[in-house]
Specification:
The protein is α/β, with parallel strands linked by helices. It has three helices and four strands; from the N terminus they run αββαββα.
Amino acid sequence: VHPDGRSVSRMLNESGRDLLRCTFWQIAQVGPLDFELRYVPSDWDAPGDEAAAEALFRSTFFPDSRLRFCRVREIPLTPGGKFLEYVNEWATGR
C-alpha cells in the first residue's frame, strides 16, 4: 500500500530468487515507502545481485520505495505454522 492510496497486489517475479540466489524470501512493508526483502541465501559465500533484484522490485511495485536487503538464516513461520511471503508490518504495527 502506497501512502497516496495506491495498492499493488502483484507477486515479485521468480527470477528475483535467481538474482538473489536464495531459497526463501519474505517481502515486508515496514514503513510508508520502506520495505525489507529478507532472504535465505542458497550459498552464503556466493552473493546475489541485489542491485538487479532492487530494479525488479521497483518495476513491480513502487519506483519511489526504499528497499533494504536482509540476508537471514531462516524466515520464521507464523504461530499457526504458515510461511508468509508478503507481510505488511507497517499497517499492523508488527
